[in-house]
Amino acid sequence: MLSLCMIVKNEENNLGRCLESVKDIVDEIIIVDTGSNDNTVDIAKSFGADVFYYKWKNDFSAARNFSLDKAKGDWILLMDADDEIDREDRKKIKKLLEDEKIDAYLFETISYVGDKPGTDALSNLNVRIIKNKPEYRFVGAIHEQILMPILKHGGNVAEVPIKVYHYGYLNKNIKDKDKRNRNMTILKKELRKNPDNPFHNFNMGTEYMALGNYECAYNYFKKSYSALKNVKTGYTTKLIVRMIMCLNQLNKIDEALSLCNKSIEEYPNVTDIVFLKGMLHHRLNQLQEAIGCFRKCIDMGDPPLIDRFITGVGGFKAYYAMGEVYMDMKEYDNAIISYINSLKLNPLNKVILYKLSNAYFKKHDENTAVEKIMSHFDGSPEAFVILSDILFLNGRYQKSLKCIDMALNSLKNNITYYIKGRTLMYLHRYNEAVEYFDMIDSGEYSCDSAIDNIICRLLTGKNIKKPMTILKKDFIEAYRVCFKFDLLVKEGVLSPLDEKDTRIYTDIIFLIFEKLFDIQEFDLFEKSLNMLNMVNEKDVLLKLGKLYFRHGAYKLAEEELTRSMKLFDEIDDEGFMILKILCSQNTEKIDA
93 with 129: CB under 8 angstroms? Predict the structure, then answer.
């Protein structure tokens, strides 16, 4: 008999997916609720779960152990509400329970990160099935562990290639549940008790890394690394990989490469480290060395499950990275081969398809490139949507329009309306574009659509009330920027934003700049530049210089990047590289 044990709180958006994936393989569902005020409990009961209530004490182990105490099965399946077992792999689970010599099984957890599943993911091994024994209990208030207690009591543990997809680290879920703040509060309490604990320091570093504070993250990782003193744990290589990532973000490239080389000697089977070394060489423009690293990754394949962290480094990700390097080398044939190999291994990753399409346009004339791109599609409405977007991004607006019209024959939703409106906008057919933008009043693409709608309406003298209503309801920062943009255009009035932190407003302003420059509405663009006086960010001239450079306005780019250095002492690696390129171009002209 197999019992599912879970602890939950406010998981109405996830629980049904999880329970649906296991309902046919478990004999008992134990749900311990720690204070939900949504429909979580009702969903659990609809699957026949036994629901118990537990007062939350800022201790994950205590709550989990309470759930284990309720299980009647010989075996226990451990899941979180935002987990889902792979559809094919779930069939393998019953067979595992027949082996009396094994006490626990480790499955691979694929944690999706970013905005949506499938874009990117990280890998970890986690205990998922245990024998129901009273001595097998969780320890640790957070990032609770059960493997060590099992091993301590002589239990035998096996790794099995069964995948569990985890949705909890998607940006929306982290923001909605305020996971970072919750985790760090508990970790700080644990570190006060034991400041040198390597596991707690590792986890605190992970939280800071997720927040983008790489300096703090690296300091915690370094403390964890020192405390381990060459002791190899289940997270040692993941710690090293994170340290290399932080050093890269902190522009300590030599230090990062040194750690790569040292770690490759100690852990020769960990493909992740070789992959990161390749990325560092690419960043240093050491292109042949980068290619060599990525080829080695492909030869190595993915690392052992226990060391696996960055998914795909032994396959699709290495091929993709090779494609990027070959594009920089202008070796488009090799880039195309690399991207195709990557796409074969990960056909659901549309980013690869976009990169492949870009390579086709670099290599072939327009008609041949389009023909090559279309060979990767099946003719479905969804395929025409993607194809339209690819053609749009490559500046083939008329062909993009034909493809989105094909999709609209049978697929009418926010994405098709938005792509049609956006394409019409870039063809300067503003009145027609407004008609499609007006069809989107909520949900996906509503913010982008409303901003584009406002630009089209300002260019044609129309009232902007309708799109402004959408922004005011759900996107207040964009509403404030567009309100001032409208005043600036119509009345020449400019007023500053009251907020001290204007970063989010700066991003919206530059989104408007980008669109106006793209559609070559330079009069309106010149007016809109006055909006930079509303914000107090020091890097606005740096961002403006980069925008000019992307659009081929090299003289303006040089002027703004130079002003950024003189007035604000602001320049970064990308800006410095752009200035080097522009200076070399000027030198070539003088020599000529």
Answer: yes
